[in-house]
Amino acid sequence: RSTPFPAVPGITAADAVFLGLAVLAALVVFRGALAYFFAQDDFTGLARARGLLPALTGPWRWISGQLYFDLMERVAGLSPLPYRVASLAAHGATVALVYAACRRFVPPLAAMLGALWFGTHPAIYTALYSVSGIGEILSGLLAVATLLLVSRSGRERSLAVPCFVAALMCKESIVLLPVYLVVRATGEDSRDEPLGATRVALPVTLLVLSALYIASFLIGNTFGVRAGLDASAAYSMHWDHTLRDNLLSYLGWTSRIALPLVRSFTDRIEPAVFTDGMLLAAVWLIGCAVPDLRRRGWIDGGALFLLFLAPVLPLGNHTYHYYLYAPLAGAAVCVAALAETVRARIGAGMAGGAILTVVAAALAVNAALLVHKIETYPFIDPELRSDPSVDRARIAANALTDLRRVALPGATTLVFWSPTSIDRQRAAGQDTTRASYWETNVRDALSDGLAVRLFVPAVREVRFERTFGTRGDSVWYAVYEPNGHVHATDAARLDTLLAPPSQEIP
């Protein structure tokens, strides 16, 4: 019976080896994420699980934002390593499923190259280095699983429905997947069979679920999108040149991954990669005219890339590398198709296989070096890191480690204050009436003090201020450095702390 996606071939020993190599490469490249603490948005999920914030009740990101943290909190509590391991394991599983998706079209070696390219791609760095990036990983994993389940011919095919619903409840950006499935089910590849219910019922069911999801999203005014957001709001939709600029940025980030060519890793529209994006688009369009590429999934992979990417293109204030997580799973099919087409042109002997093997090794080494560079690249202050995921995790770890060493009285109000940051601001000739970068960076790292309330139960309230004055016995001060290290003291001893020669905090 025809299905909307090519059926799974028989599993061979070569599949086990090549799949294992792709997964291993991904885990090695992103293993550095295991060393870091929580930071920023991670504390929101932890606070929901601990009852410090209201639990999510609607379907929007409920699995990745609520259920995941509820389950992990029972297993790991407030220890970051198990969360990091879970993210890396979920990514490894996604790489395996991407290998299976590529394998529908090409032999094992080419499928390995496509899966390895996806699994080690530097654009997904933040999804692995941020605990809260689990939403991207789980939605991508479940979206590819849905795609593969639809290709099955047994009872397990019906599992595509709950799998797709779960993917939507992790991240809504994969909502257009059923469009591909319906087109594939009714397309040219299936015209030798009548459009029977056995072939189109499941894709149409998934399409109806997508339509209902989108309608509920709009009617419920989720994230405020229907009410008309201010242009500066996080999820403000811009139906103008933003669509083009975002598309070219994402395409540019997809193709510009060679270490010498990557000049920055900033999450914003990046005109410097527009040319790369246009070249990649041109290559894909030209490839659509090549029969060998079409037969090996070239159009399928490109369509999935675009459908997974389309929901985030109107976001004028959110252009993030890690939004490419699911789209790159589609692009991996294109990479595998290109690899096998090139190998076939070279010949089926040792030469073609050797070249693909060398390319795979080069991709893995390049990715490892680039990810290490992103992770360790310093900021203006040599103690800080340029990448915010790493920098703020280090800051949060410093602050909370220092605070947990202090015997704070119960129901403490903790006032964060950084004279060092204000002095740096003044020395740089900046406006000292506004919070400096060093202050906002620490505040963001600690999620506006939520992290302190989570990890230091004696603290009832956290405030970030730029002046001080005695406010009662329950008020303590956390005098902090830009790197997050703090010295907590009550108001009575604050003068001693700040007096020379003790102004520098160790």
Helix content: 55-70%
pLDDT < 50 stretches: 190-196, 501-506
SS element count, helices: 21
| Major β-sheet profile | 4 strands, mixed
Order of helices and strands: HHHHHHHHHHHHHHHHHEHHHEEEH
Q: Could you tell me the number of beta strands? A: 4
Order of strands, main sheet, comes to 2-1-3-4
Q: How does this model look, in words?
A:
Helix 1 packs antiparallel against helix 4, helix 4 crosses helix 15 and helix 5 (108-119) packs parallel to helix 16 (350-376). 56% of the residues lie in helices and 5% in strands. The N and C termini lie far apart (70 Å). By secondary structure, the chain is mainly alpha-helical. A 4-stranded mixed sheet has the order 2-1-3-4.
Please describe the structure with a list of short key phrases separated by commas or semicolons.
mainly alpha, 506 residues, 4 strands, 21 helices
Compact description:
This protein has 21 helices and 4 strands. By secondary structure, the chain is mostly helical.
Strand-helix topology:
Blueprint lengths: L12 H17 L12 H9 L11 H15 L3 H24 L4 H12 L5 H5 L4 H17 L9 H11 L6 H10 L10 H23 L21 H15 L18 H14 L3 H5 L2 H12 L15 H22 L3 H27 L11 H17 L7 E6 L1 H9 L9 H9 L4 H6 L3 E6 L10 E6 L5 E5 L3 H5 L8
Parallel strand pairs: 1-2, 1-3
Antiparallel strand pairs: 3-4
